[in-house]
Structure to design on (1132 residues):
């Protein structure tokens, strides 16, 4: 058996589901999962489908037929993934180690369906963790003067290692529009607040000052507008007057870890689709 | 426009989704929502579909065709509901008033898509609430001696008022196998614990004694096995050593209210399917 | 037995707890609950204490001694409440009925330790609910022209009915600085977002547009700065791409109900203290 | 400054708080935190107090006075900890690696205030993780025949390394009454269900079979009665019909990690007191 995942979005039209499911039947596939969503306001149709095919299936042919018939008829945007091919993920870090430990721990425990060919950092502090987990670590310092040069080096590495998506595990540098455009909806950030509350720097301090009773963390795709990209996952934890800013930070670390790990998992399993700065997440 | 909801379950087979969605296209319907689930272990297929049809559509004809073609070909169990026809719900209560106030408040605020033709109680205590909300109240005392007679009277009322489903809003009597068989998967109970922990009487006292850090409530369909029916919805709330049994009860009331209201809503909107003592809940 | 609640805050100093607890011992009281908090940043001490006294205790004398000794020595702000005297709460409403039904349901179920002498509204829509629960309802229309006159009438009623605190159960008018200063930290609002995200009008629409995965509700004391007062309680619920704005609103209603009810309970049981636009909430 | 933590429990009596806080004042300490609890049913008083003392304070003398006066007068059970002395924790593991990775990651990120002198396992599978984090690993196989011998070896190591408490990070062997009595309320287990539901083996399979909508994890002290010890912490996560047993297990891993880490933190920071098979947890 071979398994595939098919993601589709297009203008909503009558008969799409029937057409797609009939197509899968015709090419001898068995649908094991199907979920779809219609954004009524925008009139857009989204579908995620998993199917099983015999080992002999010629997917190049299947994709060509799909391209020339359905995809054309319905003007679809679509992606076709063969399961078993793990996406290749680059980790960007700075000095905070909690998300890095968590991701590498889960990776080692085989909970994340990814390859991690490299870690890139603007500081050398976390190199020992990369060594501990045996992942190549590239220290590329970023200063005002070296920003362009540094980014050039980063892009070369991403290309060389055939990276599919990037995870900013508390990476403390702004990503440039250039890199964002090259990895559109493929750079995942973790922000340590319940966005849109407290964007930017020091959200735990702001939350403490405001006297909130709940703090949160948000994982989102990076866009040119700071902390305004499509939200993939959020979660929260209760706080009270008993908690200091230091407590907020400690409780927040737990949230950041969990929320980022969930976002990575969802992205790696091709369960996220982006449209109009929002995500459709098929659980 | 007329809206319909179609619920289907049957043995999982190739091509079901294609067949159903093609059928809807053929009878000039537009699918506005479709969710499906395959229970891989049991090899059962479940589908919930919402569609829009023109006002001229002859649903009797549509249903007949469906019956004679797809339903037959795939050996389907199926239900077809025309939206706008509200299910008729009977409330059974005893002496606790919090769920009753909550349900009648939501009903009055038009949050529940039901009719409530009557309230039945084995005590007279809550009659004034029924009066306050202008719902007919039937006091049918139940003692060992009058149990059979009482149930007979209950069944007559349920029949007379054309009741579709029953909600036990903290009704403190065991429902007999006879009534259960007449309203299979149509009697909703709220149990004040996180089932399967603490079935039976006095769950808050047991939870307190055990020193749990979280208490819960569970809404389920009533079956012959006490507190063992298919679970529709559960929720929890944190407790601590600070809380007394009385606090558990008070916090629990909030849970009971919310969980029961959600279960009623899900059932009334035909989002729940039962199979092998479990529920498929299409949110 | 008579029960009392004592709330204290003052500059943090050595020996306060010893002094207060010794005092209670000396006047023959038994401490049944004590919680305290030190705001290290602001160097402020907060205490909440519950105690039992014999029926013969002369509380006027006790309070006088406390005033002239400890309260003076430590420059305390303090409040002394005799349990059993229920605070008197005014409800302000407009057209939304879900919070009103919920509060009156809980009040009737004796879950809220308050008196509700009156409901004030700028519309007549909810009068029938007030009638249903037998609470006096005052319709005071507010237009640009009648704003001053309306407020004058409101203040007269609040005074006449000896109101201790006001609950805005989705009251759709701005409260004036005058009323706020007369009822400082005594006007409780429910805002239908997870503040500080989405203050102001139409938060559910904004949340939908931003594509958040969690929505919230916030209960806070009203201050002159809109939606910026001290937060008493917050809670959240998950949403997904499946949910429309209408779903957000429906799920939000459940949150608003629950969060407001909890805030009312906490305030009525004198568990909330305000300092520097934040609350200390002793659960 | 030196910081201390004082834990007390005894029969509830008038004047305890006054006596203790006066004592701290008298020995020149400053109370920075105090929380207390009265179990009204059992008539037991619990207190947790943190204080600051000058560097010159002679704690041996302070403890002696406390012992001979207050502790005697009130028949107290008490513990006095000087902050900065980290408790020494032994990890017991078998084959599951997710909790081990998580604990060692947090330990390395300096989130846990403990020493970890050794890891003991009945299998050799996780040795490489211990090596990776540079913690001594002792492989002590346990079979029916070697059980006594193995335990003897375990106890020798615990003694040799001056272990204060033991964490069973998914250790798949029953702890004997002998070891339990030597480390009473000092062995922390993580059970992968929402106890008391689903004790014993394969709780995720049982939860799946029962069709629950929420699964949980529970951390508790080990007692002779399997999965019946005092509960320290619990948490839950939602599941639905979409989730397979494998999904339950994966979601559960996240819960197990988090709940166990919280329990370790609470225990290491001396925030947990045990009484009558329940815990008082001072957050």
């Amino acid at each position: 058996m071979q398994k595939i995942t098919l993601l589709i979005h297009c203008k909503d039209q009558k008969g799409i589901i029937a057409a797609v499911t009939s197509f899968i039947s015709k090419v001898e596939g068995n649908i094991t999962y199907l979920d779809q969503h219609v954004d009524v306001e925008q009139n857009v149709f989204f579908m995620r489908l998993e199917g099983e095919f015999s080992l002999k299936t010629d997917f190049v042919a299947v994709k060509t037929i799909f391209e020339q018939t359905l995809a054309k008829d319905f003007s679809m945007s679509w992606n076709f993934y063969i399961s078993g091919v793990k996406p290749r993920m680059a980790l960007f870090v700075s000095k905070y180690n909690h998300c890095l430990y968590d991701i590498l721990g889960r990776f080692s425990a085989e909970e994340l369906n990814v390859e991690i060919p490299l870690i890139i950092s603007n500081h050398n502090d976390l190199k020992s963790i990369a060594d501990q987990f045996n992942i190549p670590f590239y220290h590329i310092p970023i200063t005002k003067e070296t920003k362009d040069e540094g980014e050039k080096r980063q892009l070369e590495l991403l290309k060389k290692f055939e990276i599919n998506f990037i995870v900013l595990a508390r990476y403390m540098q702004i990503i440039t529009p250039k890199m964002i455009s090259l990895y559109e909806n493929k750079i995942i950030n973790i922000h340590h607040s319940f966005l849109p509350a407290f964007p930017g720097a020091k959200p735990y301090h702001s939350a403490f000052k405001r006297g909130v009773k709940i703090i949160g963390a948000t994982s989102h795709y990076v866009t040119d507008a700071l902390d305004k990209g499509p939200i993939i996952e959020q979660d929260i934890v209760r706080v009270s007057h008993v908690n200091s800013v230091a407590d907020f930070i400690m409780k927040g670390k737990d949230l950041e870890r969990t929320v980022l790990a969930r976002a990575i998992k969802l992205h790696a399993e091709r369960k996220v689709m982006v449209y109009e700065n929002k995500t459709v997440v098929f659980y």
About this structure: Residues 83 and 257 of chain B are 26 Å apart (CA to CA). Chain B has a mean pLDDT of 95.
